[in-house]
What we know:
Structural class: alpha+beta
Distance between the termini: 55 Å
Number of strands: 3
Number of helices: 3
Amino acid sequence: MLTDRLIEARVRSALRDRFETGLQAMGIEVEVKDSQVVLVGAASDDRIITELVRTATAVPGVVRVQSQIRYLSFVRDFS
């Protein structure tokens, strides 16, 4: 659907503007169906996940954002 492609392009652009590293470097995928956005991937910071969702939600035409971004915690063993 043309509208979904336009929304996807707008979401990608908004996320690219907000996050300098870019979506590919972050490993985040954007999917759109019926004006609903699904963000897929993984991140190691809850604040980044929240900001990804907030940024996508603010894009005109988006009716809903679902996050399927997994939170990854890193454990370091310094012993």
